[in-house]
Specification:
Strand content: under 5%
Structural class: mainly alpha
Radius of gyration: 18 Å
Number of strands: 0
Helix content: over 70%
Distance between the termini: 24 Å
Number of domains: 1
Length: about 120
Amino acid sequence: MVVGIASLGAEQAFRLAAGPSRVDPWTPAYAAGFLLAAELAWWSIEPRVPAWSDTEVLIRRVLAIAGCCVGGALLAVVVVLAAGAPLHGGVGLELVGAAAAVAAIAVVAAVARLPAKA
């Protein structure tokens, strides 16, 4: 499963690197598709539990997966728009970079503080 998803991602990365020097507008669709494929593949190998026969649990899980895919696509849209923006540096771009670095550190710190599951 991991090899398949990684192969698809590598193929997309190679296609973007070897392609024309412009932003691919289909990148958000690929991002959502890769995330959906990974989530469904993981769901297919998870151990079955009796709670999954409950319709409410199934609907919540499907909505959670759909929400993750939509969120991934929206994040990819932001990245594509930022990559295609004609920015030539300056204070604004430095502020955006600093904010991104702070946000990345905050995410790492939040994940590091999560309790370990036994």
